[in-house]
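> call design_seq(struct)
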């Protein structure tokens, strides 16, 4: 029996038949779902207490089904669980548990990726140096900057600094990755599947990013936007293949996310996510609908089989958009056309659309997303 462990029950909405249970932060806490947020309202996602509760839930499932196997959304949380409860290691599948931990660290990844791809101008600075005056000395040709915690996701601990927007309160005594802010740049995410035989670029999406105060927050993925030009697409595929081949040779298997930013002239790789992505839900829907494949099944098979796939059908295109509505305001949501799927999950909801949300919003004068 396969058990999903992740942030949202909705992540496996289109492949739920392959899972016997799901253990999630947000969820319905009904039928085969164990929702930790429902039963422990004050629990912080990713905290030590949260890791302990995941392990406790795993032990509970194993007491009922000794053949259970657990697939994690996030490899780093699997590693934390095993660090505290080594006996659970044998039950975890589809996880690069001790392989390429550095892929999560933005600074180390950029240093490595610079051997193969373009990266944006970057440096690491201490908290006390993250002020506009100092950044202007480091990057004199730019007027705004982005600072990021080395381990962060979804826009958490990612801030814009300008002459008028000073550095927010950030943790003292730490290093932050700093780059010029490409004001007119567009962010993209690519899903890779790495097997022993191939590096397959499954899909490329425009990342729907919006500014909330000084944060740059992830609001969803758009796989259908006309903003992804042929030139940018070709550049992203080339970089994905190059880096993927090196990672394949070094033992990485399964799904990998790579993030890029393009200013229309040059495309840079900026970070990697050695896990499933926030937009994996939509890709899994289309893989199921058009190819009768599950993203999660492909991921698992890549660890144990010498699978090969017809790459001519990838990357999948024109497969719609998904929005994570906890990061959007009601006035924005009411303007968007009726969605195809509306997945309600406790106090978290996901909306899926047939077409490009980004194109629709900008054609109608709403520049909510960058």
């Amino acid at each position: 029996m396969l058990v999903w462990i992740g942030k949202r029950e909705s992540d496996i909405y289109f492949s739920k038949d392959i899972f016997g249970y799901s253990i999630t932060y947000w969820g319905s806490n009904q039928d085969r779902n164990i929702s930790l947020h429902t039963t422990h309202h004050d629990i912080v996602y990713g905290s030590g207490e949260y890791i302990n509760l995941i392990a406790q839930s795993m032990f509970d499932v194993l007491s009922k089904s000794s053949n259970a196997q657990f697939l994690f959304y996030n490899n780093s949380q699997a590693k934390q669980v095993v660090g505290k409860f080594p006996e659970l290691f044998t039950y975890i599948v589809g996880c690069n548990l001790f392989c390429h931990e550095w892929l999560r660290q933005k600074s180390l990844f950029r240093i490595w990726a610079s051997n193969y791809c373009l990266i944006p101008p970057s440096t690491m600075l201490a908290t006390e140096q993250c002020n506009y005056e100092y950044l202007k000395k480091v990057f004199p040709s730019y007027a705004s900057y982005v600072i990021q915690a080395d381990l962060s996701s979804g826009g958490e601990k990612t801030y814009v600094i300008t002459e008028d927007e000073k550095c927010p309160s950030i943790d003292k005594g730490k290093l932050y990755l700093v780059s010029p802010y490409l004001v007119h740049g567009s962010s993209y995410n690519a899903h890779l599947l790495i097997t022993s035989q191939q590096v397959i670029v499954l899909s490329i999406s425009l990342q729907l990013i919006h500014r909330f105060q000084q944060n740059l927050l992830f609001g969803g993925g758009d796989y259908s936007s006309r903003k992804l030009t042929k030139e940018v697409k070709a550049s992203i595929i080339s970089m994905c293949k190059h880096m993927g081949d090196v990672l394949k040779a070094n033992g990485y298997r399964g799904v990998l996310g790579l993030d890029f930013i393009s200013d229309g002239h040059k495309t840079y790789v900026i970070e990697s996510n050695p896990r499933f992505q926030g937009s994996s839900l939509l890709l899994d829907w289309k893989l199921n609908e058009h190819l009768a494949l599950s993203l999660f099944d492909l991921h698992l098979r890549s660890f144990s089989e010498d699978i090969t796939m017809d790459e001519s059908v990838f990357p999948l295109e024109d497969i719609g958009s998904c929005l994570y509505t906890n990061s959007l305001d009601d006035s924005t949501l009411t303007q968007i056309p009726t969605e195809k799927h509306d997945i309600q999950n406790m106090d978290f909801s996901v909306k899926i659309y047939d077409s490009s949300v980004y194109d629709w919003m900008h054609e109608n004068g709403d520049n909510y997303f960058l």
